[in-house]
Design a protein that fits this description.
Bound molecules: adenosine-5'-diphosphate, 6-O-phosphono-alpha-D-glucopyranose
Radius of gyration: 23 Å
Number of strands: 16
Largest sheet: 8 strands, mixed
Distance between the termini: 42 Å
Strand content: 15-25%
Length: 498
Amino acid sequence: MRQSSLVLVANRLPIDDSQAPDGACEWRRSPGGLVSALHPLLRHTPATWVGWAGGTGPAPTLPDVDGVRMHTVALSAEDFRDHYEGFANATLWPLYHDAVEQPQHHRRWWEAYQRVNQRFAEATAQVAEPGAVVWVQDYHLQLVPGLLRTLRPDLRIGFFLHVPFPPPELFMQLPRRAELLRGMLGADLVGFQRAQAAHNFAQLVAKVLELPATDRRIGVDDRVVRIGAFPVSIDTAEMAALASRPDVAARARRLRQDLGDPRQVILSVDRMDYTKGIEQRLKAYSELLATGDVKVRDTVLVQVAMPSRERVGQYQILRERIEREVGRINGEFGRVGEPAIHYLTQPFDRAELAALYRVADVMAVTPLRDGMNLVAKEYVAARVDDDGALLLSEFAGTAAELSQAYLVNPHDLEGLKQGLRAALRASPEDVTQRMRAMRAHLQQHDIRAWARSYLRALDEGGALVSRLSSTDGGPEDGARVPRPASPADTAAAQQASG
Ligand code: ADP
Ligand code: G6P
């Protein structure tokens, strides 16, 4: 078994085993923000990615993807049902997103979660060379850091949660809350999207496990586990380069024509998930149509909603409700050849997405709760002419960074309508000023800056950053400057371990 000095562990591999329309097997990019963020980061790095390939049954052997070794972990049909669809996506996912849908609890799901986490830990232990850095991702694998530390105490282990970490009053509902916290504390560094999440985690650890904890450090046995906020990002330069390509610009012009040359195009791009606020957005749009604030020939809404977790009941119900509402709105407000909403459920390649971003005068990203939301960042990166209005939910992690967006509370229907109206009617000067500031932020805070800050904190000495390839990164990629421990860190460490 070949071993690596850098191992990334995520439930999903960057490619997914899916069925082509003719029934044949094909590989395509996996859905979701985690893969969008990490895939460009690892490209051409001598690393191994441990993950699941999207099907059930024996693990397929995959070729390297962009120079990264793929190590597949198999999920049986039962694991898929009880671990992936069950504990991960019907217990943890809704609970971590403000319980906007009711989290479900079944003992069988917890057993599957433990079993699958153990399998991931064992697979990782096999492919990690002595002293390797292992970076475990997301809520599907919260037990892996602890299990891996038992199997391989020589490893440097990081854990990063891509989704929100809930406040104590919600997390306390989990029957196995202590085990989940202990699992995460197997890591040397536990990273979150936002400082509030790190604070929630520290409070819970102090309350449930009775360990000394600050928002930066936790004392566990004879170790100190560091915690912190590391807002994930995108490959800003890559998206900007894609959006600047002449063929993408031409495609955007064509799309506008195909949409009937409206004065304004509103775009939303979501995984079809109840956290994304799609229904609330449709309602706001439909009320604006009803009052005549928005007119069909003038303005169109393009809603891309890629089906996700399709066998989970809450997702099936959501899809039915969205499709009924799109049908109702088009029936009521559309004209022949001029629908009010262009509704698309297909996967698009990156160039097509970039063209869609370029065509959108207003991008509506209004989740009820979102760990980050990379679609918002992709849109900003693609607006290479410094135009385009971003309507953004206060409840997306992105809002903490892109504060120049038109911010809205998606739970407030009137506020949502007002925000949409404001974005549609904003002056070009206002739009440009805001977009310029947001683009400048993302140029600095891209996916490589994220990885560097995380790996530096994991390492405290700085040498780990060099394990990322510098071959296709920006000019800063080779930076190796260690982050010195601040006096506040030292004091917190003493407090946590004392
Ligand atoms: P989440 O991780 O919850 O899905 P994000 O907004 O963080 O939400 O990430 C979604 C990612 O999936 C983005 O990179 C986006 O470009 C991609 N994506 C969304 N819809 C599609 C689609 N229809 N085709 C291809 N990629 C998509
Ligand atoms: C979110 C999660 C990821 C997940 C993605 C797609 O981004 O944080 O871990 O991979 O959604 O969801 P899926 O269930 O298709 O993996």
